[in-house]
Amino acid sequence: MTSDSVKLTRAGEVATLTLSAKKGALGPDFWAAVPPLLAELQGARALIVRGEDVFSVGLDLKTSAPGLAGVLGDEAGFSAVVREMHAAIEGLAALPIPVIAAVHGWCVGAGLELISACDLRLCSADARFMLPEVKLGITADLGGLQRLPHLIGRGRAAHLALTGEPINAATAERWGLVTELLDTPEALFTRAEGLARQLAELPAAALEGTKRTLQSEANHTESMLEAVRWNARHMTLEALQAGLKRS
């Protein structure tokens, strides 16, 4: 099944979710399409999440801004818009099967929050990771601020979130954001597919139990919703537009 921005393919028990919009931009179509696609994973034993030309430049502000503009200052309305984004990322995290993120090129903002919800993260040497929301007058509210401290430590998560500056693939591996660094995108995708097949051969119940136990420390729902409420009260179109001009 495909949409304009994401497609799901299968090769036996391994499924692949590909961010197929230009530069992996995550717009309204993406957020709406992901939960139905995840519902089609019956029989899959592992899932790979990857991009095409790059992994993802993050939220597509040009297509998302119209939906957000009318609810700025309206906490209930803003939360309703963001809830659809949460459904996609939290749905990915809730899958009972292992989810492997294969990152090449840019992995920015919502893209970084997306991979933080995956179980394993691999990247190629050209990967760059960035959480630039502060530069747009936004508090990251899709789970990254809750998950990243568990993955890389609070100090490094704070460095990403407060500076908005990128880190390269070698730094991401050193920090523990990714666990394997491959030379090229081609080698990355080959390794991700091999790892997914390897995991698919393991007992499903043991994999799910291990995954749930690892996730049990990261009950972050209320913290994430507080970030949404903060944005509803403080986010402005002027800051977004200024940030877009700088990017």
TrEMBL record:
Transmembrane portions of the chain: none
UniProt protein name: Enoyl-CoA hydratase-related protein
SUPFAM superfamilies: ClpP/crotonase (SSF52096)
Family annotation (InterPro entries): ClpP/crotonase-like_dom_sf, Ech1-like, Enoyl-CoA_hyd/isom_CS, Enoyl-CoA_hydra/iso
Family: Belongs to the enoyl-CoA hydratase/isomerase family.
Domain of life: Bacteria
